[in-house]
Amino acid sequence: xxxxxxxxxxxxxxxxxxxxxxxxxxxxxxxxxxxxxxxxxxxxxxxxxxxxxxxxxxxxxxxxxxxxxxxxxxxxxxxxxxxxxxxxxxxxxxxxxxxxxxxxxxxxxxxxxxxxxxxxxxxxxxxxxxxxxxxxxxxxxxxxxxxxxxxx
Length: 152
Hints:
Elements: H1 2-28, H2 42-81, H3 108-112, H4 116-125, H5 134-144
Helix pairs in contact: 1-2, 4-5
């Protein structure tokens, strides 16, 4: 899963660099904007450009949230990897939108005590599959949060 997040991060970084490199030509080359009869005035053109910058700002905010989330999750997984005792404290991971997950289990013993519905809510919050029996799903969740176990 960390590889997946790294690939996603690398793709986002490439998109951001592409967007950043294109931005000057968009604002300085009017030919880059399609000819549209609705853009008859400078005000219309200015409005289109402002809309483009608003979308760019939104994408940058989403990118920043994802970067912060990935950083927090890498730190949490490193901590959770050292949780060798069933009562050792676990650090919660964050969603890709950098949000907390409600009712994150405090330790491995609490994970073992999760019922199917509670487990499915946690898996869904992290966009993980809810397929398989409860043992497979718990193993999927445990591995996702950084507790590495031997394959069954």
